[in-house]
C-alpha cells in the first residue's frame, strides 16, 4: 500500500486551476470521459523514463476555474503487477507535484459495481481528494437495476456523480461537483489498511463492499447486457466459426483498405501534381525553386498520399478494440500463440503492428511475462506496417496490372494480403525459434477481461485515429522533409567537375527537348547520390536492384516510406515539366546499357520481399532500445531482419528471373 | 479443481493455490465464496472463459488447475 498524500487545500473556491487525475478499471469508460472533457484539446506524450502513453488535456471547469486533466493507465487495484499499473501507482504516490490542487476522479463502471469499488475504496484510504464518476448508468437501467447514489456516497464518504460518459451525460454535474469541491477527510474504509498484506486487505475490502452494494443496489431481474454478450459470443468465439469469422474480418479489412482508398489517393496525387506544376511555373527559376518543388514538395506528396490507407487501417483496429471484439481475438489466438512462445495478448501488438510498430511495441507492455513480452517485441516489426503500404502500393501497381483478377478478386489486393501473411508467418517462425533460444523459468498466465459487447464509441474511435494519424504525419513528415532535402542536394551536386562537364557537353551539341531526360539521368549518375548508389550496387545486384534502388534502400533506413519520397525525388530530377506521377516515371525507367525495363516482375517481387523483412525504421530501433532497456536486442533484431531480407530477396529474384 | 469441470457448470470458488494468481483474480472480483460459471472452453481445452456476475475473464487451463471449487447447490 502507498502512503497517503494529504491535500494541500480545503476548498477549490478561490483557486484558478485544478488538476484532475483520472483513475479507473480497464473498460470502465475512462477514455470516453477524457475525450468528453477535453475534445481536441489533448496531447499524447510519454511518462518520463517509461514509454507508457500519457494523455493530458485542458478544459474549463467553471467561469473562474480552469482544469488540467491527466489520464492514467487503467488498473484493477493499487497492487501493481504490470508496468502500466506501476505508472498509475507511482503517479498517485508522487509527492513532488505541489503546483496546483488536485482531485482524483475515480471512474467506476456502475454495471460492475462490486469490482469497481475496490479501487475506489483503496483511494479513499489513501485520503486523496476523490470524486467517483459512476459511469455506464445507462447499462444499469437497461439491466433493470437501481442504485441509491446518495446512500452510496454517504457510505463511502466521497461525492458521487452518476454519468453516461459516452453520450456526455453527467458532464455538467461532474464539473459542478469539482468546482464546489471541498475536501473532508473521509472515514477509513477498512482499519489499519497498511499493516495488512495484499490478500487479506482485498478480502476485507470486498466483504465490506458486498454489504454496501447489497444495501444500495436493487437488482430486479436478469442482466440483459451479459445475456446479449453471451449470445454474440456463441457466434464470434465459436470453436470453429470464430476463427473463420476472424479471418474473414481481416480479409474484408484489407480489401476495403485497398478499394476505398483509391479515389482519395487519386485526388491527393493529382492535387500534388497540379500544385507542383503551378509552383514550378510561378516561382522564378533557380536553385531554391528546384529544391522546393523537386525536393520538399515531391517528398511530402509521396507520404501524404498514404494517409487514406493508414486512416482506414487505424479506423478498423480502433473499432474492433472499442466494441470488445479484439479481446475475444486474444482469447481465440492464445492456444495457438502459446505454442510459439507468445501470449493471447500478443495479438494486439501483432495486429497493431500492421499500423505502426512503435505504438504496437509499447502495447506489449500489458504482457506481464518477460519472455513472452520480449518475443512479442522482437517479432512485431516483421508484421507489415503502414509505412510499408506506400512501398508495397507503388511496387505492386508497377508490376501488376490493376485490372488483373483472381477468382473475381483484385490481384493487387491479393498480393498485398500475401505480403501481410508473409510477415505474419515470418513473425511466428521467428518466435518459435526464439522460444527455444531464450531461457526463462517465469510462469506464464493469460488472465484477461472480456468486456461486454458495445457499440463503438465514435468519439473515442475518432480521437484514436486523429492522434495516431497526427503522430504518423508529424514524425514521418519530419524525417521525410529532412531526407528529401539531403537527397536533393546529393542528387543535384557531384564530386569534381563532372556535373558541369555534362552541362557543357549538352550545351555544345545543343539541348533539344528529347535529350533533356537523358542529360538529367547522366547528371544523376555523376552526382554524389549516384556515386553512393554505385558503391553498393555490386552487393545488391544479385537481388536485382540497380544503383537508384540502392540509394533508396540507404535513405529508407531512416524510415521505410522514405523509399517512395526518394524515388519521387530521384526521378523528378529529369522531368522538367513535372507532368508524370512517380509511378509513370518508374514504369518508363530503362537500363541505359541493356535497354531493358528496370522494374520487371523479378525485381519488383524481390524488392517487395526485401521491404517486408528488413528493419528499416529508426523509430522502431529507438523504441526497442527503450522497452528492452539496452542495445542488445535491437541490434540482434536489426542484424537478423537484415540477413533475412537479403536471403529472401536473393531467392525470390533467382526464381522469377 | 476448476479444470476438471465442464462448460456451463456453476461453481463456488473456495481457494486459489498460488499467491500471485490469487491476488490477480481477487482484484477482478473472483473471490472465495463467489459463484462462478464456466462460460466456455476453447478447442483442445485451452483457454477457458469464466464469469462472476457480469465480469467475463479468460484463463488458461494451467491456472484453472490451481483454483479449488465446489459445485454450487441449485
Account of the 3D structure:
- The complex is a heterodimer of chains A (657) and B (74).
- Chain A is of the alpha/beta class.
- Chain A folds into three domains: 207 residues, Rossmann fold, CATH 3.40.50; 182 residues, no CATH class; 179 residues, no CATH class.
- Helix content of chain A is 59%, strand content 9%.
- In chain A, the strands form three sheets. Chain A has a seven-stranded mixed beta sheet, with helices on both faces. A two-stranded antiparallel ribbon of chain A has the order 7-9. A two-stranded antiparallel ribbon of chain A has the order 10-11.
- Chain A is elongated.
- The N and C termini of chain A lie far apart (66 Å).
- The mean pLDDT of chain A is 83.
- Chain B has a single domain, classed as SH3 type barrels.
- The mean pLDDT of chain B is 89.
- Chain B has a five-stranded antiparallel beta sheet.
- Chain B has 74 residues and is of the alpha+beta class.
- Chain B has two helices and five strands.
- Helices cover 18% and strands 39% of the residues of chain B.
- At the A-B interface, helix 3, helix 7, helix 8, helix 12 and strand 12 of A face helix 1 and strand 4 of B.
- Strand 12 of chain A pairs antiparallel with strand 4 of chain B, so a sheet runs across the interface.
Amino acid at each position: 500500500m502507498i502512503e497517503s498524500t494529504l491535500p494541500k487545500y480545503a476548498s477549490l473556491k478561490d483557486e484558478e486551476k485544478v488538476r484532475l487525475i483520472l483513475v479507473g478499471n480497464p473498460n470502465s469508460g475512462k477514455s470516453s470521459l477524457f475525450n468528453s472533457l477535453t475534445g481536441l484539446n489533448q496531447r499524447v506524450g510519454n511518462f518520463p523514463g517509461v514509454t507508457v502513453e500519457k494523455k493530458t488535456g485542458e478544459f474549463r471547469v467553471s467561469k473562474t476555474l480552469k482544469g488540467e486533466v491527466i489520464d492514467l493507465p487503467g488498473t484493477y487495484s493499487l497492487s501493481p503487477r504490470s508496468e502500466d499499473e506501476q505508472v498509475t501507482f507511482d503517479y498517485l504516490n508522487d509527492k513532488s507535484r505541489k503546483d496546483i490542487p488536485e482531485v482524483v476522479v475515480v471512474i467506476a463502471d456502475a454495471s460492475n459495481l462490486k469490482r469497481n469499488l475496490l479501487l475506489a475504496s483503496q483511494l479513499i484510504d489513501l485520503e486523496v481528494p476523490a470524486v467517483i464518476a459512476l459511469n455506464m448508468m445507462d447499462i444499469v437501467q437497461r439491466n433493470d437495476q437501481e442504485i441509491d447514489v446518495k446512500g452510496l456516497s454517504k457510505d463511502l464518504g466521497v461525492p458521487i456523480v452518476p454519468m453516461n460518459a459516452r453520450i456526455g451525460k453527467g458532464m455538467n454535474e461532474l464539473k459542478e461537483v469539482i468546482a464546489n469541491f471541498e475536501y473532508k477527510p473521509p472515514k477509513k474504509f477498512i482499519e489499519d489498511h497498511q499493516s495488512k498484506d495484499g490478500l487479506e486487505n482485498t478480502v476485507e475490502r470486498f466483504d465490506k463492499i458486498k454489504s454496501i452494494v447489497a444495501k444500495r443496489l436493487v437488482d430486479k431481474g436478469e442482466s440483459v447486457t451479459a445475456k446479449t454478450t453471451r449470445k454474440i459470443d456463441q457466434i464470434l468465439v465459436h470453436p470453429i466459426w470464430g476463427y473463420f469469422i476472424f479471418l474473414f474480418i481481416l480479409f474484408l479489412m484489407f480489401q476495403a483498405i485497398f478499394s476505398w482508398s483509391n479515389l482519395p489517393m487519386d485526388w491527393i496525387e493529382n492535387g500534388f501534381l497540379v500544385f507542383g506544376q503551378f509552383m514550378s511555373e510561378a516561382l522564378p527559376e533557380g536553385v531554391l525553386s528546384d529544391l522546393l518543388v523537386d525536393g520538399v514538395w515531391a517528398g511530402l506528396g509521396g507520404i501524404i498520399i498514404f494517409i487514406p490507407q493508414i486512416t482506414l487501417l487505424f479506423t478498423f483496429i480502433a473499432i474492433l478494440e472499442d466494441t470488445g471484439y479484439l479481446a475475444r481475438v486474444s482469447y481465440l489466438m492464445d492456444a495457438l500463440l502459446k505454442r510459439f512462445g507468445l501470449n493471447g495478448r500478443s495479438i494486439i501488438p501483432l495486429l497493431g503492428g500492421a499500423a505502426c510498430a512503435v505504438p504496437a511495441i509499447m502495447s506489449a507492455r500489458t504482457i506481464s511475462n518477460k519472455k513472452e513480452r520480449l518475443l512479442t517485441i522482437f517479432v512485431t516489426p516483421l508484421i507489415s506496417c503502414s509505412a510499408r503500404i506506400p512501398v508495397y502500393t507503388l511496387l505492386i501497381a508497377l508490376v501488376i496490372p490493376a485490372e488483373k483478377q483472381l477468382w473475381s478478386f483484385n490481384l493487387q489486393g491479393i498480393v498485398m494480403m500475401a505480403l501481410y501473411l508473409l510477415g505474419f508467418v515470418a513473425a511466428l517462425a521467428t518466435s518459435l525459434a526464439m522460444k527455444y533460444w531464450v531461457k526463462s523459468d517465469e510462469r506464464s498466465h493469460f488472465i484477461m477481461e472480456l468486456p461486454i459487447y458495445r457499440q463503438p464509441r465514435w468519439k473515442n474511435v475518432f480521437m484514436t485515429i486523429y492522434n495516431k494519424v497526427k503522430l504518423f504525419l508529424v514524425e514521418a513528415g519530419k524525417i521525410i522533409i529532412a531526407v528529401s532535402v539531403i537527397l536533393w542536394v546529393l542528387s543535384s551536386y557531384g564530386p569534381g567537375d563532372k556535373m558541369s562537364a555534362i552541362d557543357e557537353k549538352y550545351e555544345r551539341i545543343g539541348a533539344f527537348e528529347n535529350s533533356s531526360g537523358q542529360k538529367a539521368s547522366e547528371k544523376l549518375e555523376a552526382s554524389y547520390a549516384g556515386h553512393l548508389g554505385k558503391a553498393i550496387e555490386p552487393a545488391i545486384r544479385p537481388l536485382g536492384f540497380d544503383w537508384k534502388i540502392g540509394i533508396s534502400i540507404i535513405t529508407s533506413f531512416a524510415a521505410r516510406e522514405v523509399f517512395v519520397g526518394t524515388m519521387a525525388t530521384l526521378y523528378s530530377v529529369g522531368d522538367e515539366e513535372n507532368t508524370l506521377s512517380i509511378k509513370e516515371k518508374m514504369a518508363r525507367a530503362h537500363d541505359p546499357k541493356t535497354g531493358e525495363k528496370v522494374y520487371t516482375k523479378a525485381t519488383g517481387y524481390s524488392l517487395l520481399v526485401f521491404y517486408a523483412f528488413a528493419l528499416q525504421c529508426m523509430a522502431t530501433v529507438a523504441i526497442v532500445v527503450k522497452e528492452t532497456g539496452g542495445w542488445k536486442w535491437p541490434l540482434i533484431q536489426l542484424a537478423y531482419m537484415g540477413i533475412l531480407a537479403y536471403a529472401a530477396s536473393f531467392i525470390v529474384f533467382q526464381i522469377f528471373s | 479443481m476448476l479444470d476438471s469441470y465442464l462448460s456451463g457448470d456453476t461453481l463456488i470458488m473456495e481457494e486459489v493455490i498460488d499467491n500471485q494468481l490469487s491476488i490477480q483474480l481477487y482484484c477482478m472480483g473472483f473471490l472465495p465464496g463467489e459463484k462462478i460459471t464456466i462460460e466456455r472452453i476453447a478447442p483442445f481445452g485451452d483457454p477457458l472463459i469464466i464469469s462472476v456476475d457480469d465480469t467475463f475473464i479468460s484463463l488458461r487451463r494451467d491456472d484453472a488447475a490451481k483454483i479449488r471449487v465446489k459445485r454450487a447447490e441449485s
